[in-house]
Amino acid sequence: MSEPCTNSSQEAIARLREFGYAFNEAGELRKIDAASGKPGDLPYEFKISDNPVTNQEHYEQLANQIPDIVYELLEKNGLKRTYIPIGEPIERSTFVFTQPQPLAQSKKLLVLIHGSGYVLAGQWARRLIINNSLEHGTQLPYIQRAQKLGYDILVTNTNDTTRIINGKRTPIKGLENSMSHAAYVWEHIIMPSQPESVAIVAHSFGGSVCKALAEKFTKFFKEKVFAIALTDGTVGHPPAGCQKYFLDVTCNWVSSTEPLDTDLTHGDKEKNLTCVSAGHPEHEWTSSAAIESVFKFLELKHQKYIKTKQS
């Protein structure tokens, strides 16, 4: 799992400049022009040596600056950190981002769950952030769209599960893996905030996390969670204890060469998860490519949820 960066955003930006890179106004990582000292036109170049190990190490060192830069962007967009486990010293804690902070009786709450690997809070795909743009690789477009539609927001951080304590990598108490992190957030932040309704967008392994949450908190899900949008989510079989409900509220936008929203469901929709094309053949691109369709789905599901509650 990725070790969270401890340097500030400004330090991370300075480190990027030491590597010869900076983000331009469009959020694209570009080589710094020697004459102007500003981002130029050349994109990130992975190969700096004939040694593959050197190239990968350079990439990882540069990529380690991304989390703090994204964290600051989340904060600039109005989100604030909540440290967990609650009551633990910060140096032994991780954090999630919410708006507002603390959450309280949200009319509509949107929960964002990233995939596995090196991505941390606010990121969908590190590769896209580096090679394309912040717009394509971060969760900011989802956050900004949700804000316009009146959602409160919670951004999970399920890969941030360890800290260095006394020189040793140590699991964060009660948050030792993605599943326990998400369950803790659900039990100690989301449920106590008593939201009226909840939607989830989850990418890749975030789908498995979402399934585990539905299995663990089935009653809450059936009462409150009106939509689950997966982007190339890994789910397998729907949860046995709430299969009909899960299939009714969930759609998976999968990587495909077919046009956006082309129905790709396998078999009977009464027994299988609804799958549609994300409009892009590459896994990392599915969240960015499907955003318009995802929010249309969320809003339609919310309208249905409200009508059902009123009837």
Give a written overview of the molecule.
- The protein has 311 residues and is an alpha/beta fold.
- The chain has a single domain (70-310), classed as Alpha/Beta hydrolase fold, catalytic domain (Rossmann fold).
- It contains twelve helices and 13 strands.
- It has helices at residues 9-18, 52-63, 66-76, 126-131, 134-137, 140-148, 178-190, 206-216, 218-224, 243-249, 286-289, 291-310; strands at 21-23, 29-32, 39-43, 80-84, 94-99, 109-113, 152-155, 162-165, 168-171, 198-203, 225-231, 250-254, 274-277.
- The strands form three sheets. The protein has an eight-stranded mixed β-sheet with strand order 4-5-7-6-10-11-12-13, with helices on both faces. Strands 1-2-3 form a three-stranded antiparallel β-sheet. Strands 8-9 form a two-stranded antiparallel sheet.
- Helix 1 (9-18) packs across helix 3 (66-76), helix 7 (178-190) crosses helix 8 and helix 8 crosses helix 9.
- The termini are far apart.
- The relative contact order is 0.11.
Shape: globular
The number of distinct β-strands equals 13
* Helix percentage range: 25-40%
Total of helices: 12
Mean pLDDT: 95
CATH topology: Rossmann fold
Q: What do we call the CATH homologous superfamily? A: Alpha/Beta hydrolase fold, catalytic domain
Report how far the terminal alpha carbons are from each other: 47 Å
Report the structural category.
alpha/beta
Q: Provide the CATH top-level class.
A: Alpha Beta
GO biological process, one term: regulatory ncRNA-mediated heterochromatin formation
Domain Arb2: 15-260
GO molecular function: siRNA binding
Pfam families: Arb2 (PF22749)
